[in-house]
Amino acid sequence: MTDPLKHMKVRAAKLGFTQPFVVDLKNFGQAPAVGLREAIAAGHHGSMAWMAETELRRSHPQNLWPEAKSAVVLGMNYGPETNPMETLAHPEVGTISVYARGRDYHDLMKGRLKELAGLLARDTGEDVKIFVDTAPLMEKPLAMAAGMGWQGKHTNLVSRDFGSWLFIGSILSAAALPATSPELDHCGSCRSCLDACPTNAFPAPYKLDARRCISYLTIEHAGPVDIELRTVMGNRIYGCDDCLAVCPWNKFAQAGRETKLAAREDLNAPELAELAALGEDGFRKTFAGSPIKRIGWARFLRNVLYAIGNSGDPKLKPIAEAHIHHSDAVLADAAQWASARLS
């Protein structure tokens, strides 16, 4: 029998993807749905109400698209060239999550997945749908079931070939495709990711409480951050890579080769003073085409002010003081806190 993925595999390699991994959806179990339900019941999703609202559709790909018989999962490597935690030792600069230092991966991957999905639809004669991290689809459990990697104790995907640094894209197909073998959990007794978390966001291995996660706090959370958590955020102004960066499996990782996702030099260690001075227009221009633009200037400035408060640098105090009477109550609070910390 001709391999229905033959042409897609060749093209996927040329487009910078991993090999395609395939899940037979009739064998995709209920464990991910149970874990999702427990996390929502515990309130671990924080203010991300959309997770509760889409729980049923998210719990199984066929609840999202009943005609789907298979899921094809592909990864794109974005491994950093340097240790992403290096900037944590330099409090006068901001630390940005590796994935957000370059171009927004959603648009890049979506365009390339459309091309691959077109090949799959042509070769199978069946309908397809593509997903890149924005629909109610549990892509990490699918990636594990397909054999791309496993969900580590930090709940993120870990690959034996790429460590922690893979973007995931999925193609649902109405065709019954030959499945690849699922991956086993290779974390063993290691707890490096759990111990590295500065906010203790893991109530137990394989469970994440987003309400304490710096990625959630700097990106999804709209209001003021609890005082207790601000002080340990350090200079992390967008996302956090600590639990990813310390994973021992990264010794097998390789730097990403996709030039369109390469880190911008100005975002590897941006000066807090310069970021605080951007203003709304400057923010939009600086982060055009970047995932950072999504959170908006006010939330970004809040994060920068927290970092300034944690810097210990009295020269940054006037920057915080300039926002003490801001009309935005969250920004005014952040500025007052940062100023007091530097007094």
What is the rounded distance between the termini?
73 Å
Report the mean per-residue pLDDT as an integer: 96
**Count of discrete alpha- or pi-helical segments spanning 4 or more residues:** 16
Main beta-sheet annotation: 4 strands, antiparallel
In which order are the strands of the major sheet placed? 1-2-7-4
Number of domains: 2
Which class do the helix and strand fractions yield? alpha+beta
How do the SSEs run, as a string of H and E? HEHHHHEEHEHEEEHHHEHHHHHH
Strand percent estimate:
5-15%
Q: What radius of gyration results from the CA coordinates?
A: 21 Å
Spans with pLDDT under 50 lasting ≥5 residues?
A: none
User: What percent of residues adopt helix (DSSP H or I)?
Assistant: 25-40%
Gross morphology is elongated
